[in-house]
Design a protein that fits this description.
By secondary structure, the chain is α/β, with parallel strands linked by helices. The chain has 4 helices and 5 strands. The chain has a single domain (2-125), classed as Nucleotidyltransferase, domain 5 (2-Layer Sandwich), CATH 3.30.420. A 5-stranded mixed sheet has the order 3-2-1-4-5, with helices on both faces.
Length: 126
């Protein structure tokens, strides 16, 4: 079963994909509107034949916005959306990419996808 991990942000959204065992960074999409993001995620779900979505969430001011996005996503795609704690995922993604020797520019481009992969892997490991 393929699972899509999402690190939601107001400017960029990181995506990761998994076959059920290991999560891999997939891509980063820019956000202009919720509708545009929903369409882009829907395309990924169709192309990759995703059966479940794991959406990162943390306590704080973004929590309600993320819950609302998750609700809209579930309604549009008609698949299960699971919320997974994303606390410190971005910080961990940066640290891991530095250790891996990824150059700063590339690191900034893919930071959100790496965060999504960490969120998804955390779900898979739980």
């Amino acid at each position: 079963m393929k699972i899509l991990g999402i690190d939601y942000g107001r400017k960029k959204i990181g995506l990761a994909i998994s076959d059920g065992l290991l999560a891999e960074p997939y891509k980063v999409i820019s956000t202009r509107s919720t509708e545009e993001v929903l369409k882009k995620v829907e395309q990924v779900v169709e192309v990759e034949q995703v059966e479940r979505v794991v959406l990162g969430i943390s306590e704080g001011k973004m929590a309600e916005e993320i819950k609302e996005f998750g609700k809209k996503l579930g309604e549009k795609l008609k698949i299960s959306v699971i919320f997974q704690d994303e606390t410190l995922s971005t910080q961990q993604a940066v640290e891991l990419s530095i250790k891996a020797g990824i150059k700063r520019k590339k690191r900034k481009e893919l930071e959100d996808a790496y965060s999504a992969a960490l969120i998804l892997q955390s779900y898979l490991d739980s």
